Amino acid sequence: MQHEAHTAHVHHHESHGSPGHGPASWSMAAQATLHCLTGCAIGEVLGLVIGTALGWGNLPTMILAIVLAFFFGYSLTLRGVLKAGVGFRTAFRVALAADTLSIAVMELIDNGVIVLWPDAMDAGLADALFWISLAISLVIAFAVTTPVNKWMIGRGKGHAVVHGHH
Fold first, then answer.
1. Distance separating alpha carbons of residues 10 and 7, to the nearest angstrom
2. Does the global pTM surpass 0.85?
3. Around Cβ 106, how many Cβ atoms within 10 Å?
């Protein structure tokens, strides 16, 4: 009887997708990925605009875009955790733990698509190809990163860490 009660209690927690206690929901993973995508997109676009406006080559522009994607991705998480009353040092660690893998996967896929897309690296800000290839690369990156976030949240990592501080 006691075993059945424990099993029912565990099943109850799993059905709610509690981070670290069973599988995470696809909705939770998609929300975490959308959060990551927002920061990455801000950084990517800003980096590409700055690099292009300054006449930089592809490599330095891409490096700037990646650095800014990490910066804005971490900043969005940091802002939310700080609002919850957590100290800066702890909030910074939470942001690193929550977003590093997610942003890295997102950037790898996003930039990989752009590099492989014919003529996308040479498209200027006024070219439709620039914006179309960027939008499609971010959609593909979202699709690839969502399962990664689902896996991490289900193990109490990634954005599950952030939720523990809200």
1. 5
2. no
3. 30
